[in-house]
Specification:
The chain is α+β, with helices and mostly antiparallel strands. It is built from 2 helices and 5 strands. The chain has one domain. A hairpin with a 5-residue loop joins strand 1 and strand 2. The longest helix is centred in the middle third of the chain and has 8 residues. The chain is globular, with a radius of gyration of 12 Å.
């Protein structure tokens, strides 16, 4: 089963599990981020799914997710995200 954490813009975290007990569906991931998903990678090489349009749709910056984002120190992550540990 995939292990995942939902990181909300208010800094709170919640462990989340796929409905089928194995792997998250596209619809589940889109529900967590409230829109189309885009894959980002964390500093410790976990998959982080973000709202693809978060920067332009008025989403709130997610400070906690921004701190663990790997590639661009100047970039900001917006909206709730799901971080999935790779197997």
């Amino acid at each position: 089963m995939e292990k995942a954490i939902l990181i909300r813009t208010d800094g709170s975290e919640e462990k989340v599990c796929p409905k089928d007990g194995k792997k998250f569906s596209l619809k589940e991931l889109q529900g967590f981020v409230k829109g189309y998903i885009e894959l980002a990678i964390t500093k410790d090489n976990k998959d982080m799914y973000v709202n693809e349009e978060g920067k332009i749709n008025g989403s709130i910056p997610n400070e906690k997710a921004t701190k663990i984002y790997k590639y661009n120190q100047d970039d900001v992550i917006y909206g709730d995200v799901v971080v999935i540990e790779k197997k």
